[in-house]
Structures are given as structure tokens and as C-alpha cells.
Design goal:
The protein is built from 6 helices and no strands. The protein has 129 residues and is mainly alpha-helical. α3 (34-60) runs antiparallel to α4, α4 (64-79) packs antiparallel against α5 (85-98) and α5 packs antiparallel against α6. The two termini are 20 Å apart.
């Protein structure tokens, strides 16, 4: 017998439009694997806020190497959820670190922090108990 809680919920277009993440695209990318999606939610919601803190510390100390490593890690983590603002901002920060360009980095970090909070909240709303 199929465990219904392991299947993706039916969702309307309006739900998908309310989210900053594209659920249909994410699930298609994961081959419809709802269990894998749930695992990725757990990983992102646990790890992303800590990586943002690493990015903040690297920015404060102007440590380009650490900023590049942390931004790259967050970019990869966010890419599991298809193209999204977190991935875009992390890529921008990674590039800034590679070129040692600090103009606008603090603003990008602030935007990234807000974007991660938003995605974490959205993912938690989709997580099964």
C-alpha cells in the first residue's frame, strides 16, 4: 500500500504563484521524488542559515577565500530548488570574492540573508511533520 504522506500534495497554480520557488519545476527536476524533496528541505533549512552566517563573517573580515567557498556552497545548495534568488545572489557574491571586488557586497549579503529567510520559511511550510 502506498503511504499517502510520502506523495507530493496536489497543489493549485495559485499556491505555486504564492511561493518564490517553483514547486512544479523542482519536483520535475527531482523526478517527482517527494521523499528526496523532503530530505533536501531538511538539509537546506538546517544548513543555509549557517552558511549565510559564514558569508557574513567572511564579509566582515574581507576574507575573499572564505566568502568564495561559502557562497559557492550556498549556490550549490540552492540550485537543488531550481533557479532562485538565493542561487543568483550567492553566485554574485562568489564572483565578487573571486575578483576581490567588495563594492556592493554588503548589500548583496543583506539581500541574500532576506532571501534565505524567505526560502527557509517557504520550505518549512512544505515540510511533512
Amino acid at each position: 500500500m502506498i503511504n499517502e504522506s510520502r506523495n507530493p500534495p496536489r497543489f493549485s497554480e495559485s499556491l505555486d504563484q504564492q511561493l518564490h520557488l517553483n514547486l512544479k519545476q523542482i519536483l520535475n527536476r527531482l523526478g517527482g521524488d517527494w521523499e528526496l524533496f523532503q530530505e533536501l528541505i531538511q538539509i537546506f533549512t538546517e544548513d543555509a542559515p549557517e552558511i549565510v552566517n559564514e558569508i557574513k563573517r567572511a564579509t566582515e573580515s574581507k576574507n575573499a577565500t572564505q566568502l568564495e567557498i561559502a557562497s559557492h556552497g550556498l549556490k550549490g545548495l540552492a540550485s537543488n530548488f531550481s533557479k532562485n534568488e538565493v542561487e543568483t545572489l550567492a553566485a554574485r557574491l562568489e564572483q565578487s570574492a573571486k575578483t576581490n571586488q567588495w563594492d556592493g557586497v554588503r548589500e548583496s549579503v543583506d539581500k541574500l540573508d532576506s532571501a534565505v529567510d524567505l526560502v527557509v520559511d517557504e520550505l518549512r511550510s512544505l515540510r511533512e511533520p
